Fold this sequence. Notes:
Layout: E1 4-9, E2 15-21, H1 24-38, E3 47-52, H2 55-61
Antiparallel strand pairs: 1-2, 1-3
Amino acid sequence: MDSYAVRRQWPDGGHDYIALSTNPGEAQRALERDRRYWRRGPVRPLDHRVVAISARDFDLHRVRHGCRSPDCP
């Protein structure tokens, strides 16, 4: 089963994932909510995007804060 999540790219080069879903539309709505949340903060993600990701990779990132691996989705 395909899964989708929101990838946030941070100014320090790290990234993280939020809002795992099997529905790309739900992931897109989560992206929009998250973008609104961060809009006024002093530190903001450089980029938000919906990506296809396995549940296993999503779970690995829960403990891999600030991942900078170039082979991540």
